[in-house]
Amino acid sequence: MKNNFREKILSLLGTHPGGLTILDIANSLEANRSTITKYIYELSGAKIIVQRKIGSAKLCFLSKDMKRDKR
């Protein structure tokens, strides 16, 4: 059975408007950090999510367009 990490990541970020780190996402989805990183870069490239560096952490957020689509 193949997990659909893209949808799970988007759903998780939708419930955390303050953003999450890649490690937070991996822990929440009980997945390997490198697997989640692959999907984060894919989603970032598609401009579905954005990453913002805050201190030493990179937080992931849904892009503004994705938030609007959810309304």
Q: Shape from CA axes?
A: globular
Which series of helices and strands comes N to C?
Answer: HHHEEH
Distance between the termini: 31 Å
Rg computed from alpha carbons, rounded to a whole number of angstroms = 11 Å
Task: Give me the side-by-side strand order of the main sheet.
Answer: 1-2
- Helix tally equals 4
Explain the overall architecture.
Helices cover 54% and strands 17% of the residues. The protein has helices at 5-14, 22-29, 33-45, 64-70, and strands at residues 49-54, 57-62. Strands 1-2 form a two-stranded antiparallel sheet. A hairpin with a 2-residue loop joins strand 1 and strand 2. The termini are far apart. The mean pLDDT is 89.
Structure keywords:
71 residues; alpha+beta; two-stranded antiparallel sheet; 4 helices; 2 strands
Topology:
Elements: H1 5-14, H2 22-29, H3 33-45, E1 49-54, E2 57-62, H4 64-70
Antiparallel strand pairs: 1-2
Helix pairs in contact: 2-3
Q: How would you summarize what this structure contains?
A:
The chain has 71 residues and is of the alpha+beta class. It is built from 4 helices and 2 strands; from the N terminus they run H-H-H-E-E-H. 54% of the residues lie in helices and 17% in strands.
